[in-house]
């Protein structure tokens, strides 16, 4: 199973990451400000594509946002597309700007 790690700096900027050994294979870059969690970018390295890692990052981010009462600003094209494709699933989280 792929373990997802959240790393934030002292300004609440960072992301969710998936590592295989020492190699970072997927990331979702975020920042948290007040009650807003902004997602900027999601990326999976080419050798790890097709394994659903971006979807796992999305699910983990959504769980984290719900658990902490955050609204999501999906600037990342992947996250924005998923929110638009499944509006009922994410309606409680989506902070539309």
Instruction: Provide the β-strand percentage band.
Output: 35-45%
Task: Give the CATH superfamily.
Answer: Gcn5-related N-acetyltransferase (GNAT)
CATH topology category name: Aminopeptidase
> What profile does the largest beta sheet have?
5 strands, mixed
How far apart are the first and last residues' alpha carbons, in Å?
A: 35 Å
Query: What structural class results from the helix and strand content?
Result: alpha+beta
Overall mean pLDDT score?
95
Strands side by side in the biggest sheet? 1-2-3-4-5
**Care to count the β-strands?**
5
Uncertain stretches = none
Give the SSE order as H and E letters: EEEEHEHH
CATH architecture classification name = 3-Layer(aba) Sandwich
Radius of gyration: 13 Å
Describe the structure.
The longest helix is centred in the middle third of the chain and has 15 residues, at 53-67. It is built from three helices and five strands; from the N terminus they run E-E-E-E-H-E-H-H. The protein has one domain (4-90): Aminopeptidase. With 97 residues, it is of the alpha+beta class. Helix content is 29%, strand content 38%.
Please provide a brief summary of the model.
Keywords: Acyltransferase, Transferase. By secondary structure, this protein is an alpha+beta fold.
Topology diagram in text:
Blueprint (H helix, E strand, L loop, with lengths): L3 E5 L4 E8 L2 E11 L2 E9 L8 H15 L3 E4 L2 H9 L1 H4 L7
Parallel strand pairs: 4-5
Antiparallel strand pairs: 1-2, 2-3, 3-4
């Amino acid at each position: 199973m792929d373990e997802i790690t959240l790393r934030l700096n002292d300004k609440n900027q960072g992301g969710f990451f998936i590592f295989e050994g020492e190699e970072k294979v997927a990331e979702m870059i975020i920042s948290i400000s007040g009650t807003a969690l902004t997602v900027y970018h999601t990326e999976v390295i080419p050798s790890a594509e097709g394994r659903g890692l971006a979807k796992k990052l999305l699910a983990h981010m959504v769980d984290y946002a719900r658990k902490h009462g955050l609204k999501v600003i999906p600037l990342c094209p992947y996250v924005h597309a998923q929110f638009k494709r499944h509006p009922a699933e994410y309606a409680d989280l989506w902070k539309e700007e």
